[in-house]
């Protein structure tokens, strides 16, 4: 049985629709009107094996912030919905991913308790515009919005990196690989993976 979800969000600042399948093959159809973000979300889908169909638009003439963050909110909400009661999932996973000189690690706990720790990025990254309209600081906003709306604990550490594009892409790919492992069904588990009996 495939674990699917569909989320829509309409505000005065953006319009977002997200459909995903946790049991996919990494197929994606993504259009957010922010090209670098499309690139990152395509990588997130590809390397997590989560199929994603995302259509978003917003007041990018003001800034891309609203569209980027609102899309991440919907991704997180869709992950939470698709996970259901989390029965049988592996729950914990980690991944370390290189991209040329950049190396990033992500650790995920599908805990039901949202939390984000993101460390190691150079201060200048926050102010760098990648692809013209994606500010480096937005990467943290994306991870935070996914964590809080999915109910996931995420730790992301940039171990090293120089090029802003490489840094953010390594972070997204590390998160993707960690999510892939954490949401995966373990055939040996027929219960909710918590001593409390719920997540």
From TrEMBL:
Keyword Cytoplasm found: yes
Coiled coil ranges: none
Listed InterPro entries: IGPD_sf (IPR038494), ImidazoleglycerolP_deHydtase (IPR000807), ImidazoleglycerP_deHydtase_CS (IPR020565), Ribosomal_Su5_D2-typ_SF (IPR020568)
UniProt entry keywords in alphabetical sequence: Amino-acid biosynthesis, Cytoplasm, Histidine biosynthesis, Lyase
Superkingdom of the organism of origin: Bacteria
One Pfam family in the UniProt entry: IGPD
Enzyme class: lyase
One annotated GO molecular function: imidazoleglycerol-phosphate dehydratase activity
One annotated GO biological process: L-histidine biosynthetic process
Catalysed conversion reaction: D-erythro-1-(imidazol-4-yl)glycerol 3-phosphate = 3-(imidazol-4-yl)-2-oxopropyl phosphate + H2O
Annotated pathway: Amino-acid biosynthesis; L-histidine biosynthesis; L-histidine from 5-phospho-alpha-D-ribose 1-diphosphate: step 6/9
Record-linked PROSITE patterns: IGP_DEHYDRATASE_1 (PS00954), IGP_DEHYDRATASE_2 (PS00955)
Location(s), subcellular: Cytoplasm
PANTHER family: IMIDAZOLEGLYCEROL-PHOSPHATE DEHYDRATASE, IMIDAZOLEGLYCEROL-PHOSPHATE DEHYDRATASE HIS7
Family per similarity comment: Belongs to the imidazoleglycerol-phosphate dehydratase family.
Protein name as catalogued: Imidazoleglycerol-phosphate dehydratase
């Amino acid at each position: 049985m495939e674990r699917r979800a569909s989320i829509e969000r309409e505000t005065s600042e953006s319009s977002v629709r997200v459909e995903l399948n946790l049991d996919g093959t990494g197929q994606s159809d993504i259009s957010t009107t922010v090209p670098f973000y499309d690139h990152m979300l395509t990588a997130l889908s590809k390397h997590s094996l989560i199929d994603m169909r995302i259509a978003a638009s917003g007041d990018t003439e003001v800034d891309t912030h609203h569209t980027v963050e609102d899309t991440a909110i919907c991704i997180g909400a869709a992950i939470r919905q698709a996970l259901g009661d989390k029965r049988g999932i592996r729950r914990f996973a980690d991944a370390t991913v290189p991209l040329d000189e950049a190396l990033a690690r992500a650790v995920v706990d599908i805990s039901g308790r949202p939390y984000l720790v993101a460390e190691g990025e150079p201060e200048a990254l926050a102010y760098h515009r990648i692809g013209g309209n994606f500010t480096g600081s937005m990467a943290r906003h994306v991870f935070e919005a996914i964590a809080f709306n999915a109910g996931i604990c995420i730790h992301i550490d940039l171990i090293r990196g120089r090029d802003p594009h490489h840094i953010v892409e390594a972070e997204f790919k590390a998160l993707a690989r960690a999510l892939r492992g954490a949401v995966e069904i373990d055939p040996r588990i027929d219960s909710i993976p918590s001593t409390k009996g719920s997540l």
